From TrEMBL, chain A:
Substrate binds at H62, L63, R64, N94, N280, H311. Belongs to the metallo-dependent hydrolases superfamily. DHOase family. Class I DHOase subfamily. Residues 51-238 form the Dihydroorotase catalytic domain. Its cofactor is Zn(2+). Zn(2+) 2 binds at D154, H181, H234. PANTHER family: ALLANTOINASE. Binds 2 Zn(2+) ions per subunit. This is Dihydroorotase. One of its GO terms (molecular function) is dihydroorotase activity. It catalyses: (S)-dihydroorotate + H2O = N-carbamoyl-L-aspartate + H(+). It holds the Pfam family DHOase.
UniProtKB/TrEMBL annotation, chain B:
Residues 2-146 form the Aspartate/ornithine carbamoyltransferase carbamoyl-P binding domain. Carbamoyl phosphate binds at R54, T55, R104, H134, Q137, G277, P278. It comes from the Bacteria. Belongs to the aspartate/ornithine carbamoyltransferase superfamily. ATCase family. Heterododecamer (2C3:3R2) of six catalytic PyrB chains organized as two trimers (C3), and six regulatory PyrI chains organized as three dimers (R2). L-aspartate binds at K82, R177, R232. SUPFAM superfamilies: Aspartate/ornithine carbamoyltransferase. It comes from Pseudarthrobacter enclensis. The gene is pyrB. This is Aspartate carbamoyltransferase. Gene3D superfamilies: Aspartate/ornithine carbamoyltransferase.
Amino acid sequence: MAANTGTYLIQGAAILGGEPADLLVRDGIIAEIGSGLSVDGATVIDAAGLVALPGMVDVHTHLREPGREDAETVETGTRAAALGGYTAVHAMANSTPVADTAGVVEQVYTLGRAAGWVDVRPVGAVTVGLAGEQLAELGAMADSRARVRMFSDDGICVHDPVLMRRALEYVKAFDGVVAQHAQEPRLTAGAQMNEGDVSAVLGLTGWPAVAEESIIARDVLLAQHVGSRLHVCHVSTAGSVEIIRWAKERGIDVTAEVTPHHLLLTDDLVRSYDPVFKVNPPLRTDADVQALRAGLADGTIDVVGTDHAPHPSEHKECEWAQAAMGMTGLETALSVVQHAMIDTGLMTWADFARVTSTAAAKIGRLSDQGRPIEAGEPANFILVDPAARWTVDPFRMATMGRNSPFAGRELPGKVVATFFKGHPTVLDGALNTPHPEAAATPAGAA
Amino acid sequence: MKHLLSTEDLSLSNAIRILDTAEEMSAVGEREVKKLPALRGRTVVNLFFEDSTRTRISFEAAAKRLSADVINFAAKGSSVSKGESLKDTAQTLSAMGADAVVIRHWASGAPHRLAATDWIDAAVINAGDGTHEHPTQALLDAFTMRRHWARLSGTGSEGTDLKGMRVAIAGDVLHSRVARSNVWLLRTLGAEVTLVAPPTLLPVGVEKWPCSVSYDLDQTLANGVDAIMMLRVQGERMNASFFPSTREYSRRWGFDDNRLRALDDLGMTDTIIMHPGPMNRGLEISAAAADSPRSTVLAQVRNGVSVRMAALYLLLSGDTREPAAHRAPAYAAAAPSTKESI
């Protein structure tokens, strides 16, 4: 652990929403937890009324660098992550060039280290160029300095069943996981939105639920057959929740994620034809939203993943069919999940810690993240004001993307402080400074 | 009404108002001088991102009969084909002072984008967007049906609706903006609608629409219809497995000579045959049916100009008051009496 991270005394934080306690942070670790702690020279933070939670871990982030630095960079995306309460993000592989070699994943990893706002864990592509034809050098990425454990062609489904089977088998050699973007391509050619009552009226080509569910059903059976670990990205339908529940009951090693937007928004919003609501998988129906909430609450769905997908404004200021798919999410995730899951009584803050941190770190095999808030543990945690209310303004965010579907909404919960390896990257709800280690990491070090 | 984007949200009173105004406008078309000064000095842009000569010239004739200046902007061969965005195109038209934009676009919802954004502050008329809506087509169809329905009951059509009229709409409903606009407007006007199509060419969710659905054209005819509207079907659809062949489609869902005879055999002497055009003769409609006295195809074209005049007039004249039964419309004062020639 790095030195020079200073000493902080956090007074009166409710750990996982429990009884208030004091936390002493020193040299990157939680040195002590107790009541009435007092330490000379420590920076004191009054945390009365705040909840302490483990630093959030996003299993699904698009940082756009390399290639689309007009949409987001590792620097801006990780600033957004820190503000949103994250201490680690998994950077998806669909950059340009694609993260399908050790060279590219090491570049992204190094950019993340140099930025110093969160741990950046690159996701490696499953197939060369996301083309779905030939396995990328998964082992080389696993052995690289980026230590890739999650592999995904996210944005594109690994739809060839043989290729998917081989990928699932192959990553067992280094304890990897294949994160599948479940979308049967033939059933979704030209798809624009959820297929159902609203698409029928709007005359937009439908993206049927069965296109997601049929791939998940196939993949859990493949995972069972070859004894592999499968992760399902952004589950969006009630039927998918049922299939994953069935698979888990049979002991299949599958994990699943849901996005904040699928926990709150429905395809009724598409009636505006405003492409800020265009996303893949698409917004579904209220019945799907309720099933996803229930699945997250009962553990069928393991984690919340943002699928943070910033786009330049010209890719959204156009006709619906022309617009890019995707929404920003890093800076609204905590508030949306609090609104949809905690304020509704479906989950506690301890559950929140599980679905946003503990389980996510386990899927990505991040040993220093998602740890309990206890003495001796790495100081990756956040302080949250659950009573705060704020109105979402995309133009006041750290992400370069202005495509937030929550713009103008009032949401509960605010990240007051983010501690990343003992250093406050966020203080008083605003960016502080990157971790001091970053200064020692030149961006070109890869 | 600031815009005319869809019939889904068109109220009964506004629908009747457009149809009644169109009746007044049709009288203008029967005069020697087919022109009113109502929109003199106003600029109407026909912004067409998709080829449609028929709809474009119909709107052009409508605007010119109201004395508006007309600019035709065909997206093909223009800056749009060089990658200019809808936003930039709209802002360009706004800077040129367009008062109304008549937009035809291949993308569903494009007219809504123009109306909802601050890119342009003009009245927007949807002249067909993707597979979403084509409201002026539905209004001209309703206008045609209403004249027929009123004539059968021996009354004038002004102020009337379509209560009790049985309308069958047959063909490619899935890809049809005409079908969607017709279903909503006919519901509003009180008609009973049956959609007839192969199951592959009906959208998932159609069961929630305010109409009946049938896979059997013969049964639908036997149950009795007052108007049968045939939708254009693209032969290429068979390549995407929507139906096995054009011949099978034609046999099961085309309005062929046998079905034309069946109308006579069933004693439905007053049933009209409609088609929005352009027709695929021999595919969804036989030549005999298209050319029969029952066919309203050319009347629909004629009525299209009147309905589009009404829409342009009502959106641009600033006359947004609810219609009063005995109040002369504003344009009448600006022109020689149009009542005389009705």
